[in-house]
Amino acid sequence: MLRELAGDGTPLFPVVKADAYGHGAIPIARALEAAGADGFCVATLDEGLALRDAGITRPILVLYPIPPALAETARDAGLGVTAGDAALLAGLLDALDGVASPDQLAVHLEVETGLGRGGFAGQALLDAARQIERAPGARLASLWTHLQAPEDGPRTARQLERFEVAAAEVGAAGVGLPPRHVAASAGLLLDGVASLDGARPGLSVYGLLPDELLGVASARTRPVGSRLRPILSLHARPVRVAALPAGWGVGYGPTFTTTRPSRIATLPLGYGDGWPRSLSNRAEALVRGLRVPLVGNVAMDAVMADVTDVPGAPVTTEDEFVLIGSQAGARITVADLAAARGTNSWEVVTSLAARLPRVYHAASVPRETRTLIGDEAGARRSMRP
Length: 385
Fold this sequence. Notes:
Distance between the termini: 36 Å
Oligomer: single chain
Number of helices: 12
Number of strands: 16
């Protein structure tokens, strides 16, 4: 679907930074590489090196500048790096000066078009391009920018115009014009943002619609975006289900006290797993297809669910709870949690901690498991239900 949005032949470089937005960078990158991704984007050098160590061979772009002292490391690993500051670029090129190598460091110039956090503009961009062209140890690999508010048509148009002017000036200066890329997820999902020579989809890779497009009825929104389906769900089984009398406090604090005889299920995850304390008494879970409130203060390793009103046989430690995802026709979305937390969908998924076991499915069949121990045997030894 992302190729359909980008256009036939447009290279796609999925963003797998922050552990693939909390989904697990290495398993996700392996799956995307097998599916034909043209390359990947990460935020840090360490993230790129981890992918290389895992056997990922496609091009990798590090989106934030790296310390000049690590220029050789990036080059030797075949990682492309971003330059957006004159002093850091000079240091990067100096670090490669006189270092014998058959390879060149791929340098991608970020263009400041309005985001206000990085990149070159005007004469500084031309100077940077010329410096890279003169440096024997480096090559100019691309020009790119990032949109500040893709849903804002006039603002986006101004950014795109600035980018096109900047690219034209680089070409007119006699510097070979490299590939250009602008669009991320929202750019792909909205009309009016060309893919140019590549695209960097992020949240949409994981089946999530960027928050700024949620509920937006716009002629600019491309209908194909409605086919996005989240690839992540979060499940737990209780480690205890107890009958508590009226007047019993639940959890540290406590901020919830039973007002009647109640059944309280303890789920073994908490803010140590990325389920934040800010969701205390503000979130729900699904069990047997019904929404039940999560009560009391979220602890580092536990959150409690009030299952008193679940009909039928009492809930037990054999019941599966869904904190993100669907069950029996009911659904709790990442966007729901973002709204409850006063944040965005990106933060919800990227905050999911590494110690949460992850099971990867293909065609409804489990194919890979990731735990802190690392392998399937480790997953079987896990103490978590």
